[in-house]
Every structure is written in C-alpha cells, then in structure tokens.
Amino acid sequence: MYEPNYNQSSSGSPIQSGVSPFKPEYDEYISENPGRGSLKIQISAAFEAFPVAGVEVDVAVYSDGVRYSLYHDVTDSSGIVDNMILPAKSKDLMLAPERSDADEAHYLISLYHPDFQTVLDKRITVYDRIETILPVTLTPIAKQRSEGM
Known about the structure:
- The protein is mostly beta strands and 149 residues long.
- The chain is 10% helix and 42% strand.
- The chain is elongated.
- The N and C termini lie far apart (58 Å).
- The model is unreliable at 1-10 (pLDDT under 50).
C-alpha cells in the first residue's frame, strides 16, 4: 500500500507544507481514489534551456478545506523530481460518460528556489495508470546591482 512522504522543509522556504499526517482523512481519500498515477516534475529556466537543481517541490491535496502535503522533495541536477505515486480516480470511473471535472484527482504543486520566483499551488490532475509530466519554467528574481558596477 502507498504511504505518503511526510518530510518537511527546514530551509526556511515560504512554502507552507501543509498539515501532516492526516491519517483518517488520508484513508478516506485513498478509498475515494483507488487508482494510482505517477507524477514527474521537470524544472528549468530560460525557456527550458537550463535545468534547475535544488528546487523544493511540495505536492499537496486539499481535503475538507485543509491543505495536506503528500510529498516534499528537492530536484536533482537534471531539475527533476520523479516517481511520485499518487492516488487517482479509477480508470473505469474516468472513462464513464457521465463523469465530471470533480471526479478527477487534483493536486497542488508549490516550488521554491532562492534565485527564482516562488510558484504556489499550481493545480495538476493525476490519472490512473498514467505518468503525468509537468514541465515548469521558473522566472529568475532580479538581483540588486552593487555600487560601482
């Protein structure tokens, strides 16, 4: 059975990792989302020309108005966080003609690196038996020039 990663950031980033753990709510969330999908996040700068290592990535879900963190990780030298297995609606439910957007498993992605603008709660959908790849291009923060330059 899948167990979430509850590691929390200690770097002082502005990302609020959310409440963890949420055992009773998580058990209910798992029963509502019996499928499994994977998520890969690719972080880059300069129109995807340069991967960005060391970006804090937080994957969360809202349940009953509370934000819960499922993953908190850091990108590798290729700017990637990979192999995040997340609950998803079953494939059969997703293929049903009467389904709605509310039937999908939505997650919120937040990204932090001290040299780039923070991305907060970017929404993404994960589907059963599908690898979702989220490419994100970060915007650099303008640095103050020192006197005499």
